[in-house]
Design goal:
By secondary structure, the protein is of the alpha/beta class. It has one domain. The protein contains six helices and eight strands; from the N terminus they run βαββααββαβαββα. An eight-stranded parallel beta sheet has the order 5-4-3-2-1-6-7-8, sandwiched between helices. α4 runs parallel beside α5. The longest helix has 13 residues. It is globular, with a radius of gyration of 16 Å.
Amino acid sequence: MAAFVLGNGNSRQDIDIDHLLTLGPVYACNAVYRTHAVTALIATDRPIATEIQNSGYARNNRFYTRRPMPGLGGQTVPKEYFGYSSGPIATAVAAMDQHHRIYLLGFDLGPNSDGRFNNLFADTEFYKTSNSTPTFTGNWVKQISKICADFPSVEFIRVFGSTTAIVPQFDNIKNLARMEISEFMARINNPKDL
């Protein structure tokens, strides 16, 4: 069964999470919990991780953070990926759950079309404003590359939209493919292709 990992880049804004949840497990990060309960949620930044746990989400749903608050249901991120960022950890958890094809959605790893902060949750609590400078993505690139190496039998597919950056370091990773968002949308509308 294919799994879906949601980064929060703008390229995934037209993807229906409810539809994905009918097709397979969905792994996501941070503020996705505001609208959806997913297969596993990861938050490494303490302020939003605290909010998630205090909301009661982690008591009823699978949630990972670096230092879970006692008694609120959170789990510690896998030790091999303890220092990683939320999106890469979500990718690793999906691979550890033994999914053999994993689609990476919203892993834009670059600025939006205006050269600014590229995040669907910009201008909301715990996020930078939409006119902020882009977040440095070098660590995410290294972490995703390492996860692909750690799980050589898993097929990772990075879905490209209009705000998805080309990352030359990914070109030589044999188990990391690129797919245009139009092809991905066709696949999820004809699930036998997943």
